[in-house]
Amino acid sequence: MPAKSSAALQRQTSRASASTPADAPWLAVNPWLANMPWMANMPWMAAAAEYAVDAWQRSVLFADVMRQRGNQYQGHLAESAPNVLDFPAEVILDGHDLPRPCNYCLMRITPPDDTPSLPNARPFVVVDPRAGHGPGIGGFKPDSEIGAALRAGHPCYFVGFLPDPVPGQTVEDVMHAEAAFLEKVISMHPESAGKPAVIGNCQAGWQVLMTAAMRPELFGPIIVAGAPLSYWAGWRGRNPMRYSGGLLGGSWLTALTSDLGDGRFDGAWLVQNFENLDPANTLWRKKYHLYANVDTEAPRYLGFEKYWGGHVFLNAVEMQYIVDNLFVGNRLTSAELITSDGIRLDLRNIRSPIVVFCSYGDNITPPPQALGFITDMYRDDAEVFSHDQTIVYATHDSIGHLGIFVSSSTGRKEHRKFVNNIDLIDVLPAGIYQAQIADKTADTPHRELIDGDYVMSIQRRSIDDVRAIVQPDPESDRRFAAVAHLSDINLGLYRSLVQPWVRAMVTPNSAYWLRLLHPLRVSYEMWSDRNPFAAPFAEKAERIRETRQPVSADNPFLAIQTAVSTAIEQSLNFYRDIRDDGYEKAFELIYGQPWVQALAGLHGSDGAAVRVHPGTSPEHIAFVKEALAHRQHELHQGGALEAGIRALLWVHRLHGEADERQFNLARSLPRRESDMSIEDFRALIRRQAGLLRMAPDAAMNAIPGMLAHASPDQIRLVAKAVKDLSFAVPIDDSEESDLKRVLALFEDAAAKQEEKQEVPTKTDPPRTPRTPRTAASRKAASPGAPSVAPRKRTVAAKKSAAATTQPAGPRKAKKVP
């Protein structure tokens, strides 16, 4: 009997092997399926069996990845300073040791051995957002902001934080800590080519700008990525997150949540708000993508989940300040925020270039919220020039919020170009610009002057261009103003009537269990090795990986799976659109009512704008007048270098475009001092641009006089550099005509200098001593001439002379009495 059974099994196995299709290796693992009579006659049954095996294996592998996710979450929480940095770092300055302690710290990123920091290179400081997640997203992978800075040879620093804030810590404490960190970085790089460049992501973006408004002298160029600055702005029908404050009755719910947390706000609630924006991704797409690509997707998924699950906390006073003054009150861009020591936080006080990077695919910080601060602060281009501020914006067509500072593609493209051209950005004259990044092709002129595979160009823009993106809506502002007023009322009622009772009932133990039972934390906690049902999946998954039989790409059941997934995703997107449309209509219906606005203290008949413009202070008016008077004296000052810069700016005054090729060629301009720093070069360019804006004709007519003391060779060398720089990018006929006029000016000046050198110097005859004359005799000799008193250098004149030799530094923030 055993022998007969063995022979039968061998015959069955041989028949199965003979009938196993080459494209169905799963039948070799399950030979009994091949001998079923319906397998040969029903191909769809074979496809179903193949799909069933694959689906079972995928399910086990998926469960194992989720088990690893839970274990990773537990291990991450156990770390003393959890972060997701992909680079080694050491703590340089701990915020706990500062006069105003906080949970932030300054870390120095250790550069790789193959790319050490270059001598005198400008340091970069990357500040990570504290918006519910832990730190490290700015250096999450090699192709990141930190990676781009290190690759370019810049010393790099990172500002991170611990999960728990210092008791009593405030937003101002963090601002003072960031200022102390920059002072430390500056002291460590006394020979740097410029002040530190600072990158702020998301929440860190607006916090960095607040610090820069308070201490502008510490900052080099500032790059803010995905940072909301104008919180009422948005496109109708597309940005529903801004309505949540009004639909929830204002910021009283923030106070309640902090009270239930025993004085701390759980950042997991912020993360849940992000997830609620896209239910299709949260409930289906993200996990389905892992399931469908479980053989290759696990490392990427686990890496991101390590960041996404690292929830942190904020003090109640911090979160309330943020919601009341920013998310609901929108007081940052109207310069209404005043620090406890009397400093008004006016973003117009920032003297460093501000680079804003945003995306049309970002549903958390859409372009109107990222760029709306420009239209909030400035009414026209003249105001931008009068405040001597440089703003550069760059937009992405489709990438999402996290992709702005996480995606490898943006790290290789946008962030690398920002870093490589940071000096070009730093020397831009005052005004609004747009940075555009294009592919470098074989036909690109001067390809040798371009670093990498992309070329960055910068075009001049106007306030109207920004307004076309932001699309300000006074009626919408009126509704949000009503929300802000009613929020203050509701918060006052809560604090007076409810808060004492809540605080009396809350204990540290109840706050602990409330945090532990948060839905997001439960999703991580419930499936790990601590769960006895999850632990066995590790061994099962390992065996499946050894005998993995993926389904064929043309399997019809796989196509059905994909179609079902698409239908589920579309259904959730449909639900999202209906929900968001309902939010918007409810918001407009409630806060658009005249009686609701009247209850909020808004007057409907006076027609006054509810969006407060920051205005112009008497000090600024006096500053502008003094600057204009000072520039009148600067029209004829300078030599060949100043003349070349002025001529180049004049040629491109209408085109308003420059790129990295021109800047790299500009380094060839002869300098009066070989060690001119980037700060001095920046001041020179901004000064010449200001003179051309003030009096273009007079500025150009002054060029021959500026060249009067230069040699012919030096004049022609500068003229050649101007010509090369002008042709580095395509120019139109008008610009070419202006260039010919400029070159003619320089050639005439060179010819005059040659004539002076050819004329022999005359020998002066010996002077005859003059007889001293009295005042009366002088008056008698020229009765019609007025007497001229000897000149004295007044205090104002001394200040003016000093200002001509030293570039103007940043104005200090004014204290408000």
TrEMBL record:
Return the annotated region ranges for Disordered: 752-817
Q: Mark out the compositionally biased spans (Low complexity).
A: 771-783, 797-808
Record-linked Gene3D superfamilies: alpha/beta hydrolase (3.40.50.1820)
InterPro entries in the record: AB_hydrolase_fold (IPR029058), DUF3141 (IPR024501), PHA/PHB_synthase (IPR051321)
The residue ranges crossing the membrane are: none
Q: Name one Pfam family in it.
A: DUF3141
Residue spans with biased composition (Basic and acidic residues)?
A: 752-767
Domain of life from the UniProt record: Bacteria
Q: Fetch the PANTHER family from UniProt.
A: POLY(3-HYDROXYALKANOATE) POLYMERASE SUBUNIT PHAC
Q: What is this protein called?
A: 3-hydroxyalkanoate synthetase
Q: Which taxonomic lineage is given here?
A: Bacteria, Pseudomonadati, Pseudomonadota, Betaproteobacteria, Burkholderiales
